Amino acid sequence: METVNVTTTEKATAVPAVRKKRKWTADHWLAAAFLAPSVVLIFLFVYGFIGWTGYVSLSNWNSLVPDWSFAGLKNYLYLFHDFRFQADLRNTLVFTVLFIAAVIVLGQLLAILLDQKLRGESLFRNIFFFPMALSFVVTGVVWQWLFNPSTGVNLFLKPLGLDGKWYTDTNILGGFHWGKIEFGVPVAIVAVVVAAVWQMTGFAVAMYLAGLRAIPDEVREAARMDGATEFQLYWKIILPLLRPITVSVIIIMAHISLKIFDLIYAMTGPGANFVTDVPGVYMFETTFRGNYYANGAAIAIVMLLSVAIFIVPYLISSRKGGS
Amino acid sequence: MARSVWARPFLYALAIAMSVFFLMPVYVMVATSLKPLDEVTLADMWKLPSTIDWSSYATAFDKLAPNFWNSILLVVPATLLSALLGALNGYVLSKWKFKGADTLFTLILFGMFIPYQSILIPLIQFLREIGLYNTIPGLVFVHVVYGIPITTLMFRNFYAAIPDEMIESAKIDGAGFVRIFRYIMLPLSITGFVVVAIWQFTNIWNEFLFAVTITTSDKQPIMVALQNLSGSQIVQWNVQMAGALLAALPTLLVYIFLGKYFVRGLLAGSVKG
C-alpha cells in the first residue's frame, strides 16, 4: 500500500522537496536485474542495429567487401530513380490498399455472419480462422498453383469466357506515366491480394467478433424496440461501435502488408517487369543475392519509416489510452 | 437479420459459400498430394484421385525430413526460452513498476513491428562474428531476442489481471520478488504459458526471412526447404503439395487441438489493454 501512495503523491506534488523518498528495496533491484538483459538486448538488437543499418545505407558498401566510406544520400537517390524501386512503391501502395479494404469488408461481414447464432457456428469459425495457422510460404506455394494461368481457377473461368493471366499478367490498369514507371493497378497484384486475404481475414474476423461479443445485448434490444431493421441496426449502430477495432485492424494489416516478403517470394517472385515485386523482395535479392549491401540497407530504412508512420502514433496513443 | 423467412437460408448459403472459398486450397492440396503421377495433369487439377497413392508423401518426406528435424530443434528451445523471458519481463513490468516502466515497455514493444530487413545486415555480421551464423542455436538466439516484445506484451497483459492486493499481502507476509513469482504468479500462469507457447511455436515454425538469410543448405528449417522444393522446376506438383501439407501439419494440428488458445494469443498480441 505504501508504494502505491508514494507514487500518487509524486505525481500530485509540484514541489520536489515535499516528495517522500521512494523505497527501493533489494527486491526492486532484483526486479530490475531480471528485466535488464531483455532491455539491453532490445536496445542493442533493435535500436542499435537500426542505427547500424542506417549507417550502412549511407555508405559505399555495394560489394562483398564492406566499404564504410560515406556516400551521403547516394543510395537513396539511386533507389528513387530506379525503375524497380518505383514499381515496388506502386505495388506496395496498391497491395496495401486492396488488401486492407478486402480484409476489413470481409472481416466485418464474416464476423456479423458468425454472430447470427447459426448452427455449426464453431465449425464455420474454424474454417475462416485456420489459414492463420499456416505459413505464408505454404499459402504461396498452394495459391501459386491455384492461380497458375494454364490451370487452377482458370479451368472454371474459361468456360465463362474469362481467361485471366493472373500473376503473370503485365498489364497496369488505369496507368499513367510517373517517373520511370506506369502508375496504376497491376493486374498481377490482385492474385497476390486474394492469397493474402485468404490467409489474414481470420485475424480481422477474430477481432471483430471479440468486439461484437463485447457489445451488450441491451444495445440491440433498444434499437429493435425503436423499430430499427436488422440492416439498420448493424449499419447505423453496431459498425460505428466497432470503429476502434477497425483502426487496430488497419494498423496491424498495414504493418504486415508494408513489410510483406515471404508470401510474394514463395508465390510469384518479382514478376515480369516487376509487376509483383515489393521492397521486401528487392531488399532480400539485392542484399543477399547481389551483395549491394548499402542499397539493401536503404530499402530497409524506407520500409522501416513506412511502417513507423503507422506504428508510432498507434503505440503512443494506446499507451495513453490503455493500462 | 433473423426476421424474414428467406434470411436464415440466405445466411447459411453465404456461410457455406465462404467456407468453400476458404477450404478450396485445402481440397486441391490434399487431392493433388494423393494422386499418382500420371493424374497430376493441369486438366485434372480439380478431380479427385482415382486411387490413393501415398508415394508423393514418401518422396516429399525424404526431401524434407532433415529440415523438419531442424525446425523442431529450433522451435522447441526458442519457444521455451522466449516464453520464460516474457513471463519474467511481464512480471516485472506489471507488478514491480518503476518510474518510466511504461515508456520502457513501449520502447520494447516497437521491436515487434519493425520490418526485420532493417536489422538483418548487422545481425548477420554479428552472428558471423560470434560464430553462430548458419547454426540452429544462432536462429534460436534470434527468435528469442526478437520474441521479447510479443511475449512480454502477452504476459504483461496476462499478469495485469492478477490483483495487486495478492502481491501486496504476500509482501507483507515477507515474500520477496522470487518467492512471489514462484509461488503466486507461476501457478496462475499455466494458461499464459500455453497461449504464449502456441503463439511462438506457430510463428517460429512459419517464419521465413531469418531462416532463409541466416542458414544455408543442411541447416535450413522446413519453410526454406519447402520454398526450395517449389522453386525447382523438376519437382512434381503432387510432391510439392504433399510437402506443403507436411510442413503445415504441426501448426495445423496445434490449431485444431488448441485453436482457442491460438485465437486468445492473437487477440492478446493485437488489442492492448
In short:
Chain A is mainly alpha-helical and 323 residues long. Helix content of chain A is 67%, strand content 4%. Chain A has 2 domains: 2-57, no CATH class; 74-321, MetI-like fold, CATH 1.10.3720.10.
Please give a structural write-up.
Chain A: It holds the Pfam family BPD_transp_1. Chain A: One of its GO terms (cellular component) is plasma membrane. Chain A: The chain crosses the membrane at residues 29-50, 93-114, 126-146, 183-212, 233-258, 292-316. The complex is a heterodimer of chains A (323) and B (273). With 323 residues, chain A is mainly alpha-helical. Chain A has 2 domains: 2-57, no CATH class; 74-321, Orthogonal Bundle (MetI-like fold), CATH 1.10.3720. Chain A contains 14 helices and 2 strands. With 273 residues, chain B is an all-alpha fold. Chain B has 2 domains: 1-53, no CATH class; 62-270, MetI-like fold (Orthogonal Bundle), CATH 1.10.3720.10. In chain B, helix 2 (55-95) runs parallel beside helix 11, helix 3 crosses helix 5 and helix 10 (222-231) packs across helix 11 (237-270). The longest helix of chain B is centred in the N-terminal third of the chain and has 41 residues, at 55-95. Chain B is globular, with a radius of gyration of 23 Å. The chains are: A mainly alpha (323), B mainly alpha (273). Chains A and B meet through helix 2, helix 5, helix 6, helix 8 and helix 10 of A and helix 1, helix 2, helix 3, helix 4 and helix 5 of B.
